Alpha-1,6-mannosyl-glycoprotein 2-beta-N-acetylglucosaminyltransferase (Cinchona calisaya), 429 residues
Amino acid sequence: MATNGKGRIKEAAFRRLVFVILVTLLGAFLVVFLLRTSSVSDSVIKEGYGSSESLQMTFKYSDRTERLNLPIQNELSIRLEKRNQLPPRNLDLFPKLAKDSIVIALYVHNRPQYLKVVVDSLSRVEGISETLLIVSHDGYFEEINRIIEGIKFCQVKQIFAPYSPHLFESSFPGVSPTDCKNKDGADKKKCEGTPDQYGNHRSPKIVSLKHHWWWMMNTVWDGLKETHQHLGHILFIEEDHFIYPNAYRNLQLLAQLKPLKCPDCYAANLAPSDVKSRGERWESLIAERMGNVGYAFNRTVWKKIHRKAKEFCAFDDYNWDITMWATVYPSFGAPVYSLRGPRTSAVHFGKCGLHQGQGEKEACIDDSSLNIKVEDIDKVPNIKPDWGVHVYKKQAGYQAGFRGWGGWGDKRDCQLCLEFARMYHLGSI
Ligand SMILES: *[C@@H]1O[C@H](CO)[C@@H](O)[C@H](O)[C@H]1NC(C)=O
């Protein structure tokens, strides 16, 4: 075919037109694709763990993962992280939270026989329907999940720690095949890992406790749209803490009285810091060191804690509470007290350690013959606003200078922990 100059120009113009149309179509297709994939759909999440969600999620999270140094996620981890964005359950029954409600965060692992007792105790708590219960899961376990899904007495928001070692079968933060074990010398065996101060390498099951606590703290304060405007208190409880019917109303009183009665108190506690004590039964409030059963503090205090992420993450002790006592609180520069009543409103009842979850060889089952006496006086608020405060000044316990029990020496754990503190603050860095 003969082509003159004019013909070539026409042909070029035509090609350009086709090109423009194609590009436009492709663009439109892309926009539709992105819009479709970015909406969180409940049905997709309930379908089980086997579809092609991962491609979409790499899209969504790639920006974040480039700037954060987080482990590569598997499908389960991605799916659970996505599920964390679902709105609370029971919004139809409890459409609104009460003004100044105290949010409750319950952190759980895998002791369903305990969790049932805790949930049952919560169902009897006066005022619970006014608030939001956040349940933070370390690992995914059907039975645990069923118990939480059965809760009908308040709004419930489930969140799953997406980097829980329990979700990773063969890579960090779980155990990876190249990891050093026990007291391996890293150079000799060419394995991966940094030993703790006592020469032991990491155990994922043990480090999971501190990871979960830190991830949960960061997430409930800074990572959820349900709570990131919440300035007031959040109460933290565990899957083996029995909660008394008066706990919520007492806590509201303590939160009110705290700034008036005890300016040195950073927190309020439902239980004495000595877990065996049920309280002095005096006609007085008590200020003592922060206990780890039913403690509550506000966002101001969280911000102070968050600023100590480096200290928290670097301290070679796998216990979050000992880490707080030995490094974080002492760094505040003033004594850190917690205010509580003279009768306990929560009891730690678990005999099985957290390290012996169900389904392990050494599965821990006790007969749960619970002997927690709830007297009439524990069913109603039993704190009097005109009481004075008794302060325990010199309490035994972990102090600044204690170097830790170990179990938290691997640089990868420290790094992951620091990333948890960074992940909701990228815009501000
Ligand atoms: C939070 O609690 C601390 C310690 O009790 C107190 O100093 C601070 O004023 C409280 N912040 C708010 C916003 O209530």
Summary: Confidence is low (pLDDT under 50) at residues 37-60, 355-363. Residues 73-428 form a domain with the Spore Coat Polysaccharide Biosynthesis Protein SpsA; Chain A fold (CATH 3.90.550.10).
